[in-house]
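Why does residue order matter? Because the sequence determines the fold. Keep that principle in mind as you read this record.
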Amino acid sequence: MVGSVDADSIYAGDGVDWIEAGLGRDRVMGRAGNDFLFASVWRDPATGAAAPAADDAAGDLLDGGAGDDLIVGEAGADLVFGGSGSDVIHGDAGDDLIFGDGTGGGNGDWSVTRDVTLNPDGSWNFTSTLTGVAMDIDGDGDADVILAGAGADFVHGMEGNDFIDGGEGNDALWGGNGADTLLGGDGDDHLMGGHTMILNADGTQGYTTVIDPEDVGDLIDGGAGDDRIYGNAGDDTLVGGSGDDVIQGNDGNDSLRGGTDNDELIAGEGDDVLSGYTHQLRPQRSQHRRRQRMPVLRHERHRRNKNRLPPSPRLPAQPAIATRAGVHA
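Structure:
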């Protein structure tokens, strides 16, 4: 099925469907079956040849529905729902909003307003308002592969053990419930393994939904750029990569790797392993910071109990800065 150059609404039937939405601001609903959904692929009327319409920046709504789907956003700021099943989602170019599971319905036009606010303490707030879309974001627990592509993307894997690659651009990636793998790629990214996320949807059935994290470990790699990386309640592996990163393990027995630049490592609860840093130790916050660009081969186990370290006669009342280099046993 091939759409036109106008704003189309395309609803697939049951079974395996191939849909090319074409140009325009389209709404494509895959429904049941293993579907192939393309946002901006169109066919030249003269030759019949299929080609991606790279200049189509209108943005589409793509909903895979039930089944194991392949969804390609192409150009434009797309809104994508994988639906139930183990889906493969390519956001491609554009500032996309992608949900690994769940569905989005409703009639008429829609809009997405997104805002990220950084707080003085380094934490941040994310707000996404969807108008004209009724969302059901209850996942089925299947594993999705999400390749966000270029652009400043917002991705939530939701249920299941998902693989999420932010690609280029300053992305915000949530793993959701499950043992997820998050790759930030190039850009200054925000990566969260399983933190609570609140979605504000103002549409035909507006509501607020809270997704609770599970105690499952994630693998998160920030890649290039100045990233903020947060683990969940499980045993996480958090890698900063290049750039000046902030890495917070939170609960669980985590492994935090600082990378090659000026990184800040916050151990959190549990027996954590921090590696690749020279450190600044703060008794109240159990915080480690890379102070210099130099090779450091040191691994340290550290445990925080109720946000406070046990008293130590070797620590002064004020935060002490100690730089260590070389190989330590």
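The chain has no helices and 36 strands.
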